[in-house]
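User: Sequence in, structure out. Go.
Assistant: Echoing your sequence, followed by the C-alpha cells.
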Amino acid sequence: MEIESFVRALIVGYVVAAPVGPVNLVCIHRTLHVSRVNGFMAGVGGAIADGLFAVIAAFGLTAISDWMLSHDAWMRLFGGIFLIGLGVRTFFTEPHDRSLKADEGGIPHAMAGTFLLTVSNPITILGFATVFASTGLAGDGTFVHAVFTVAGVFSGSVLWWLTLAFLVGLLRGKLEQRGLQTINRISGFAIGCFGIWALVSLIDHPLFK
C-alpha cells in the first residue's frame, strides 16, 4: 500500500512541477548560462518548497496552512515584486557576460531563489490537498502513509528538474549568442509577466482597498 502511494505521489510531484512557470524558466536560464548542476539545483529549491506544501497537506497541518493562506496577499505582493526584478535582470543578461557565474551562479543562491518563488504562492497548498483527495493520496491518515506520500511528491519534483536540466543541457554550446540572447529576452519577459499577474491579482483584495 505504501509503495503504491509513493508511486502515485511521485507521478503527482512530477506533473505538478512540469508546467512552465517562473521556476522552470529560472532552471532553463541557469542551465544554459552556468551548468546543468546549477540549473538542476535551482529546481531542487522549488522541489523542497513542493515537499513542504506536501507535508502540510499530507499531515493535515491546518494551523500552518491557515496562517499561510491568511497572509496570501502579502506573499503574493513580495513574490510579484521579486519576479519582476528577476525578470528584468534576466531580460538584460548578456550571454557573453561570464560574470554571471560569480554573481548568480552559486548553488545556495539558486536554491534559495526558487524556494522563495514557490512558497510565495501558498495557494499551492490547496492544490496539493485537492490533488491528494482526487487521487486517493489522502489515505488513512497514518504517519507512515503521509511520509511515503511526501517522499513521493518530493522525488517526483526532483525527477522533473533532473529531466529538464538534462534536456536543456543538450543545447549548451550549440546555441550562438543571438539564440541565447533571444531566450533571455523571452524568459525575462515571461518571468516579469508572472510577477505583474501576481500584483494585478491583488487589485480587488480587501487588504489593499
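User: And one key feature?
Assistant: The CA atoms of residues 32 and 172 lie 6 Å apart.
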